[in-house]
Design brief:
mainly alpha; 122 residues
């Protein structure tokens, strides 16, 4: 899924007044969670800018890219103080992210956090 596709789909399903730049900031939060889970060092994280990256593909592949949609919906609800809808969309995001995480482990997409060798420090 591309950044523009995610934002446009949410805009159709949940009309809102947020700009594309603001929605991109929300997507960047979800993308940071994805990259952190995958073990990408923080200095190497992808961060999108709407004007330059609107057509770039997001990291989580289909069908797991649904996590971006549920995250964006939850953030919109939270900012608009629609807390019941927020709770529903946040729960959906957690479910979508868990499915993505299971896929990442299954497909060995998670970078190993531990070194391959253990050195004797004594």
């Amino acid at each position: 899924m591309r950044l523009s596709e995610a934002i446009e789909q949410v805009k159709k399903e949940k009309p809102h007044s947020f700009s594309m730049d603001h929605c991109t900031l929300f997507i960047n939060e979800a993308e940071a969670s994805v990259q952190e889970y995958l073990g990408v060092p923080a200095g190497e994280w992808t961060k999108y800018d709407w004007k330059e990256d609107g057509n770039k593909a997001l990291i989580a592949p289909e069908p797991y890219s649904a996590l971006y949609l549920s995250w964006l919906k939850a953030k919109i609800d939270y900012v608009n103080e629609e807390y019941e809808s927020y709770a529903t969309n946040q729960a959906q995001f957690e479910s979508d992210f868990a499915a993505f995480a299971a896929w990442a482990v299954r497909e060995k997409k998670v970078r190993k956090a531990l070194p391959t060798e253990v050195k004797n420090w004594w």
